[in-house]
Amino acid sequence: MPKISKWVWLLAIAVLLLGALLICKLRQPQAVYYKMSVEEIDRDIRQVSLQSWSAAERVDYYSSKFLGAPYELYCQGDGPYARYDRLPLLNLREINCMTFCEIVMALSLSDYYIDFFNILQHIRYENGIIGMATRNHYTMADWLPANSWCLDEVTAQIGGEDCRSLTRTISHANFFAGKGIDDIPVMLPDRQMAIDYLPFAALLSHEQDLHSGDIVALIMDGQAIFSAHMLLLIKNGDSTVFRHASMSAGKTVDSPFAEYIRAVQENPKYLGMSFMRLKDRIDWDSHSSRHGKFRPTIRPISRWEWQALPARATGRQHEIRSVVVHHSGVEYTGQPDPKTVILGIQRYHQEENKRIDIDYHFLIDLEGQVYAGRPEEWVGDTETDYDPTGHLLICVLGNYEVQKPNEKQIASLAALIADKCLTYRIDPATIRGHRQLTETLCPGKNLQDWIDNGELQRWASERMRWMQ
Predict the structure, then answer these.
(1) Is residue 290 in some structural domain?
(2) Does residue 334 sit within a domain?
(3) Tell me, what's the pLDDT at 170?
(4) How confident is the model over 237-269, as pLDDT tens digits?
(5) Would you say the C-alpha torsion 449, 452, 455, 459 has a positive or negative sign?
(6) What is residue 1's predicted lDDT score, i.e. its pLDDT?
(7) Do both 229 and 308 map to the same domain?
(8) Distance CA 54, CA 108 (A)
(9) Residues 355 and 399 grouped into a single domain
(10) Between 126 and which of 28, 42, 134, 311 could a Cys-Cys bridge form, CB atoms 3.0 to 4.6 Å apart?
């Protein structure tokens, strides 16, 4: 029998130990939110916010944190000092199908715990105003329209010609009367509404059209209501499940896609499903509301205020992944006024360079005022040979080969960069000057120095921590 070297034995022992450690780790209970403290949840949300995850990946992650959470039909209300429903304003220990979906949505849109709490109220209530009268009670009639700022209704997009339409009369008066409430001061009038749904018979053939993270309403055949149950759809590899807070199971579970559909379609009161999807980009300022995003933002001087010319065509869309700093390249001491200068830059870009619009997304004057340029969702332009796709272009008025930027400009530049880094989940350490991407003097050595020595990145990072 050949002699086995001691190194082979040591390697075998190491492999066995590593296997044992992996088994132990797999057997450890998962850290779930319904058993964690607020401080622990806050730390976890902050860690997730640093990842470049899609909305679907966040929904998958956060919903998994509630697997096994106890089901309780009446678990959440308007808080202990409410007039009508004094259940907790937030309950992470027990959930029902609706609060499960709302909580996961709010977590998926948040960067830290306070963010989550505020966004949740904007999902649950009209404009975030807490109360029985302003709560989005009916899923399809109240909740979905009120959350158009963060949700798209995608049933017709998924089902196409297989979709069916359903019309109901929605009555808040009857709803509140059923709860014994007869003194609500403000109430929506009765209204007739129609929705799209995908019948069970067609659902299996559209599995490939569904996205992981889709929010699902189980549609019922009732006189005054559309939705009977709320679920999340999760895809992992070849597996598709409905993740939901189940009354029958008494907890949050994963139900295999085909099995669940076969089970519910046996009940004649259920007709099919409707689908909603979180937007990848949220307009937090839409409809004159912040929608609970708990941080101040830069308010640029609008194109209308500096009398911008209209864009000559629609720009090419892109996803912003980085920030690039430019200068205008012409020495500037404040005259003429910055609005006139910016309009002149736009005319030059449009007329001389044949661009669709001003090249830059934002511009900053000597007083640190920020001006809105080309729409952020459109790719910028450049006279040099680098591709600006994916870059947010910020121009500081002046020639910083010969001038030095003042403190107001640097402070505004750092604040704008911080705001956009939070919005687009960009690491401020990746900020670059134009000259770092191609052969050019832009943004001038005196402005580039702030990037090369890391001071601009440090200012932006500090501003981000304050904004959070």
Answers:
(1) no
(2) yes
(3) 93
(4) 889 999 999 999 999 999 999 999 999 999 999
(5) positive
(6) 44
(7) no
(8) 9
(9) yes
(10) 134
Is there a single domain that holds both residue 268 and residue 343? no
- The tally of CA atoms less than 13 A away on the side-chain side of residue 213 is 21
Residue 445: CB atoms within 10 A of its CB come to: 14
Last residue of one domain, picked from the residues 244, 278, 312: 278
> Is 284 a member of any domain?
no
Please indicate, yes or no, whether residues 390 and 241 belong to a single structural domain of this protein.
Answer: no
CA atoms within 13 A on the CB side of 192: 3
For the CA atoms of the chain, what is the radius of gyration?
27
Strand partners, 341: none
Q: In this predicted model, what pLDDT tens digit does every residue of 117-166 receive, in sequence order? A: 999 999 999 888 999 999 999 999 999 999 999 999 999 999 999 999 99
pLDDT at 21: 53
- CA atoms of 71 and 97, how far apart (whole Å): 8
Place of tokens 């600006």: 388
Do 328 and 407 lie in one domain? The reply is: yes
272 DSSP β-pair partners: 199, 219
Distance CA 296, CA 113 (A): 16
What pLDDT digit, counting tens, does each position of 50-69 carry? Answer: 676 888 999 999 999 999 99
Predicted pLDDT at 26? 36
Is the dihedral angle over the CA atoms 30, 121, 57, 320 positive or is it negative?
Answer: negative
Helix extents (H) in 109-171 = 113-124, 144-146, 155-159
CATH, residue 91? 2.30.260.10
Peptide bond into 443 cis (omega under 30): yes
Number of structural domains found in the chain? 2
Distance of CA 251 to the CA centre of its chain: 27
23 pLDDT band (50/70/90 cuts)?
very low
Q: What CATH code is carried by the domain that includes residue 386?
A: 3.40.80.10
Q: How far apart are CA 228 and CA 377, in angstroms?
A: 38
Q: Are 60 and 240 in contact (CB under 8 A)?
A: no
Same domain, 431 and 357: yes
**Contact 422/315 with Cβ under 8 angstroms?**
no
Structural domain span for residue 78: 33-278
Q: How far is CA 393 from CA 89, 357, 381, 396, in A?
A: 42, 13, 9, 10
Which residues have CB under 8 Å from 282's CB, separation 6+? 109, 149, 150, 291, 293
Report CA-CA distances (Å) from 267 to 94, 218, 219, 272, 451: 27, 12, 12, 11, 64
In one-letter notation, the amino acid at residue 370 is V
Q: What is the three-class DSSP state of 36? A: coil
* DSSP sequence for 361-418: SEEE-TT--EEE-S-TTB----SSSS--TTEEEEEESS-TTTS---HHHHHHHHHHHH
| Residues 269 and 313 both lie in one domain | no
Indicate if 247 and 347 belong to the same structural domain: no
